[in-house]
């Protein structure tokens, strides 16, 4: 940040992306404390069997401006989506005449820490569920409302709101339930499978090259603890499966459908890779 | 009739994609490139490359996109050089043209199967290739030659 003080902002951004190798090579040594009160775990010891010694939040790889935006909830543009999610939570929808609150009451209590432990085995469906699938189940079965289509604005807002009730809670999923272990295995296979014309696996970028720049992007470990995240590039919330699909598209491969078995397996495995990191939803990313 | 049309189209698409070896004077197809001790001796097109065109293809995000992974001081007018691969400054002092050609055609033949560098003129690619890229190489034979010619100018 020495550079920033002597250069205009635009040049500062340039210098960070280009040439200033002391600034760019490693994740920063910085603490994420939301509103000066709530400290997030952005680095932690990796679980057993993990390829890294230390698990790092994507926040550590972002620019000082982006990091500051996430640390201040008044500056964080995604807090608007949390508010919108709260509105939806309390709004009656569907033939049963119910809102989420009709059954779940105050989300600050009923949803506290819930999102940190998803995906979770769903015995009735015989597969892991993420929050999106659980919400759609409640809408269909409990409210007699239409399930949300993938990436509907209300789906993103509601999931952001629910995940935000776990802000600061370490991520951790229960692999002992149902067939979670075999989904984890399948996700691991996919993580190391090279796809597309460019012949790259998730691991080619987020494991072999974490900490390096790929063109203008500082590669992180690709952790999921901030999702849905606010992406400055898109000026919008980005869901996890949207991000997965984008990364796969960039290898010039066919993109699996959102909530397909492939992407659910990846979600299980990649969530495990971030074990112990705080939920940062809504995180701010470039 | 319909079938013939369809086959004709597929045939034409293949010819274009593969930059066929069926035409006597045409470039070597990606499956016919001969590697000898991690080199490709002959020009894929029989023609010398054009370094100026190669410089453009090197930077073009839809073609070589080499800057995504490589720093190249000769292109300092371009912002944001990646650092996944080795900086290419002085690369022509380290590698002969026939080695550079082998690296660009299929880097795995030179660096082994674990390299993250894509193969730019090979059909040995990843799974689930998107429809619009199936059966195609990232670069044409001439673009490979052009880039090899450009790399040949990177001396220190």
Automatic annotation (TrEMBL), chain A:
BP-aspect Gene Ontology terms: sulfur oxidation
Pfam families: SoxA-TsdA_cyt-c (PF21342)
Annotated GO CC locations: cytochrome complex; periplasmic space
Chief location category: periplasm
Keywords carried by this UniProt record: Electron transport, Heme, Iron, Metal-binding, Periplasm, Signal, Transferase, Transport
Enzyme Commission no: 2.8.5.2
Residues holding heme c 2: 202, 205-206, 247
Keyword Transcription regulation annotated: no
Alphabetized Gene3D superfamilies for the sequence: Cytochrome c-like domain
UniProt name for this protein: SoxAX cytochrome complex subunit A
Organism in which the protein naturally occurs: Thalassobaculum fulvum
Automatic annotation (TrEMBL), chain B:
Extent of the signal sequence: 1-24
Keyword Signal: yes
Domain Cytochrome c residue range list: 49-155
Pfam families per UniProt: Cytochrom_C
Keyword Iron: yes
Keywords associated with the record: Heme, Iron, Metal-binding, Signal
Classification via SUPFAM superfamilies: Cytochrome c
InterPro entries to which the protein is assigned, alphabetical: Cyt_c-like_dom, Cyt_c-like_dom_sf, Thiosulf_SoxX
The organism's place on the tree of life at top rank: Bacteria
MF GO annotations: electron transfer activity; heme binding; metal ion binding
PROSITE patterns for this protein: CYTC
Protein name: Sulfur oxidation c-type cytochrome SoxX
Originating organism: Thalassobaculum fulvum
């Amino acid at each position: 940040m020495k550079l920033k003080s002597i250069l205009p902002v635009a040049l500062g951004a340039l210098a960070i992306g280009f040439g200033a190798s002391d600034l760019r090579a490693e994740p920063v040594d910085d603490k994420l404390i939301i509103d000066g009160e709530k400290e997030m775990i952005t680095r932690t010891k990796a679980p057993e069997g993990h390829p890294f010694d230390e698990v790092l939040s994507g926040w550590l790889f972002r620019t000082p401006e982006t990091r500051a935006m996430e640390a201040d909830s008044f500056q964080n543009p995604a807090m608007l989506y949390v508010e919108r999610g709260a509105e939806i939570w309390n709004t009656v929808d569907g033939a049963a005449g119910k809102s989420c609150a009709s059954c779940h009451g105050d989300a600050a209590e009923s949803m506290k820490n819930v999102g940190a432990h998803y995906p979770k085995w769903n015995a009735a469906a015989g597969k892991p569920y993420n929050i999106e699938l659980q919400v759609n189940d409640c809408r269909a079965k409990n409210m007699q409302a239409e399930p949300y289509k993938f990436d509907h604005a209300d789906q993103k807002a509601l999931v952001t709101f629910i995940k935000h009730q776990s802000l600061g809670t370490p991520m951790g999923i229960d692999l002992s339930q149902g067939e979670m272990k075999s989904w984890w295995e399948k996700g691991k296979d996919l993580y190391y499978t090279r796809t597309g014309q460019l012949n790259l696996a998730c691991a080619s970028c987020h494991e072999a090259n974490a900490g390096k720049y790929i063109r203008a992007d500082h590669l992180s470990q690709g952790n999921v603890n901030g999702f849905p995240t606010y992406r400055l590039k898109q000026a919008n919330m980005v869901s996890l499966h949207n991000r997965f699909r984008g990364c796969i598209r960039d290898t010039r491969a066919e993109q699996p459908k959102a909530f397909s078995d492939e992407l659910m397996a990846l979600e299980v495995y990649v969530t495990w890779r971030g074990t112990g990191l705080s939920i940062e939803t809504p995180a701010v990313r470039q | 009739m319909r079938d013939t049309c369809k086959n004709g189209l597929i045939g034409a698409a293949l010819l274009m994609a593969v930059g066929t070896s069926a035409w006597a004077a045409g470039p070597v197809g990606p499956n016919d490139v001969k590697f000898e001790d991690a080199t490709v001796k002959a020009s894929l097109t029989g023609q010398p490359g054009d370094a100026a065109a190669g410089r453009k293809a090197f930077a073009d995000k839809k073609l070589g996109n080499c800057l995504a992974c490589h720093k190249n001081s000769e292109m300092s007018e371009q912002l944001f050089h990646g650092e996944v691969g080795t900086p290419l400054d002085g690369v022509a002092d380290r590698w002969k043209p026939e080695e550079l050609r082998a690296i660009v055609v299929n880097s795995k033949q030179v660096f082994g199967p674990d390299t993250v560098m894509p193969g730019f003129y090979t059909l040995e690619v990843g799974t689930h290739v998107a429809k619009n890229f199936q059966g195609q190489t990232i670069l044409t034979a001439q673009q490979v030659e052009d880039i090899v010619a450009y790399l040949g100018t990177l001396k220190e």
